Amino acid sequence: MRLRADTRGEDGFSLIVVMLTLLTVSILVIAAYGAAQGDTPLRAKDAERKQAVAAAEAGVSFYLFHLRQDPGYWADCTGVPAPGPGQPSPVNQLWDGRGADPRSWRPLFDSRADYTIELLPQNGYARCDTANPQGSMLDSAQGTLQIKATGRMNGEIRSIVATFRRKTFLDFLYFTDFETQDPVSVTGAVVPGTDPCARYRWAGRAEPPCTAITFGSTDRVNGPLHTNDNLLVCGSPRFGRTTGDAIEVSGPAPGWQASAGCAGTPTFAGTLKPSAAILAMPPSNASLLDAVDPQYKFTGTTTIRLNGSNMTVTNAAAGLNAAPMAMPANGVVYVSSGACGVGYNVAQDYNAPPGCGIVYVQGTYSRSLTIGSDNDIVVTNDLTRNGNAVLGLIPTNFARIYHPVTGRSGTSCSNASTSPRDIDLDAAILSIQHSLIVDNYFCGAPLGTLTISGAVAQRYRGPVGTGGASIASGYAKAYTYDDRLGYLSPPYFLSPLEAGWQVARYTEGRPGR
User: Fold this and answer.
1) What are phi and psi of 482, to 5 degrees?
2) 3-state secondary structure string, 126-149?
3) Contact 403, 418 (CB under 8 A)
4) Alpha-carbon distance 359 to 392, whole Å?
């Protein structure tokens, strides 16, 4: 009897435990259900925000597509064609966010989200002006174009500011139109329009009489490259640093050929892209004249010494002798020719008439600057940056490295005591009609190394020395791409003709409302 009584007591205790367990589980289930129900609106809002961002990105893609179809699409402001029958264009003037929303929106296909695009004016303009689209829409210093694309989904609104830039010479450490030596540096003056070397090798250029220049085993292209020609190789040069460096060659695949009587085993550390689109050189740098402040426009031979954010200028026509000047506010200096009447002299004695618009420059700069000339620009010694500034040198003719000599006899000479050794040059160089060249490169003892950090663009190849594995005269080359040029441009730097647009950067924008 005692045993039975004890068992009945345990049955009652078990029932209480079961009831408490069921109650606890029920509470947890109810809590979990409530939490799930409460989280559903949060997940829905998060999805809607993501769809709004996706719609804004679709707006950027829409505008970029039309820029690539028509590089001048931006110049029509809002007067662009409708995307289809009964579909208003989503391109609008900038809205200040007040009053009723005046913008046109375009729905995404198979989605409840839509997007709109606003043009972001530059240079103090309030709106895109078809009477002056360049002045109102293109940043005067960087040449960039901006839009704001806004996406919305069920009340969630997100905006993206996209900055577009054209493909530019600054995208490459090394750019050439023709991979042959500049004929002017071989034979002297060439009558315009009669130069047989102004033809691509892959299109039948004859060498000789044109002077082929090869990339040899000691050559290293430490950055991206583009040539409208093809590459002539002897030995094992290396092109590019990593696969991120584009090696663009407009000639057909493989994009290179071995020099006559020479084996070619090039290494492409960069990504080789044969049959690339030709990037046409601009005919002149006259657009810099439209930008230059008259105070910084000089005529005739000019000497400039850069010193941080200041410079000294010597120019006889203006009566300046090492006159101190601040850097120009818009960053442009231009030198024009007066009475000149002579061209580049292969045997350079620095005796051009004072009316020739030749610029002699050296020093250190801490503000961005572009120097243009309708003749030559001559670097007389180190030209280096201090800080995050960038420098552009844009001569119509030659970009030259100063190399005075003595005891000239035919192609023999000696370096003058004033010849600079081991030059450091931090600049983006664009020689529109000719090339980068070392004066008297063919004679005198070796001068050391020409170290360039920046970019070099030229119509023809320009020699900087002679020799093979070792330098016999002039300079050895050490050129490295300045990666900042991928997003930072010297003021008013020129772009290839009809260059395509690309997205330079995205930033999150503030929706109008």
Assistant:
1) -90, 105
2) CCCCCCCHHHHHCCCCCCCEEEEE
3) no
4) 13
User: What pLDDT shows up at residue 501?
Assistant: 85
Please tell me the distance from the alpha carbon of residue 482 to that of residue 169, in angstroms, as a whole number. Answer: 12
Q: For the chain, what is the largest distance between any 2 Cα atoms, rounded to a whole number of angstroms?
A: 136
pLDDT 10s digits, 407-430: 998 889 999 999 999 999 999 999
Task: Tell me how far apart the alpha carbons of residues 38 and 185 are, in angstroms, rounded to a whole number.
Answer: 78
DSSP state letter for 328: P
Binning the chain into helix, strand and coil, the percentages to the nearest 5 are 20, 35, 45
| Centroid of chain to Cα 398 | 21
Beta bridge partner(s), residue 87: 84
Which residues are registered as beta bridge partners of 107?
Answer: 114
Strands (E), 43-153: 91-92, 106-107, 114-119, 145-153
166 and 142 Cβ atoms separated by less than 8 Å: no
Q: Are 149 and 63 in contact (CB under 8 A)?
A: yes
Tokens of 178: 């023709």
User: Which single residue is written with the structure tokens 């009475």?
Assistant: 339
Cα–Cα distance measured from residue 334 to residue 364, given in angstroms and rounded to the nearest whole number: 19
Tell me the pLDDT tens digit for each residue of 158-199.
Answer: 999 999 988 899 999 999 999 999 888 876 655 455 678 899
Q: Which ranges constitute the DSSP H helices of 409-488?
A: none
Query: What amino acid occupies position 379?
Result: V
The region that residue 317 occupies, defined by phi over 0 for left and psi between -120 and 50 for alpha, beta otherwise, is alpha
Q: Is 473 helix (H, G, I), strand (E, B) or coil?
A: strand
| pTM, rounded to two decimals | 0.78
Can you read off the two tokens belonging to residue 467? 């020799």
CB 309 within 8 A of CB 363: no
How many angstroms from the chain centroid is the CA of residue 51? 32
The candidate with the shortest Cα–Cα distance to 382, out of 365, 404, 367, is 365
Complete DSSP assignment for 338-356: SS------SS--S---TTS
**Cα-Cα end-to-end distance for the chain:** 84
CB atoms within 10 A of CB 440: 25
Query: What pLDDT, in 10s, does the model give residues 237-257?
Result: 999 999 999 999 999 999 999
Ramachandran bin of 59, using left for φ above 0, alpha for ψ from -120 to 50, beta for the remaining angles: alpha
User: What tokens appear for 254 in the block?
Assistant: 């493989």
Residue type, 487: Y
Pairwise CA distance, residues 474 & 463, whole Å: 9
Neighbours of 22 (CB within 10 A): 10
What six digits make up the tokens of 5?
Answer: 């009584």
**Is 18's pLDDT higher than 60?**
no
Question: How many helices and strands (H and E) does the chain possess?
Answer: 4, 32
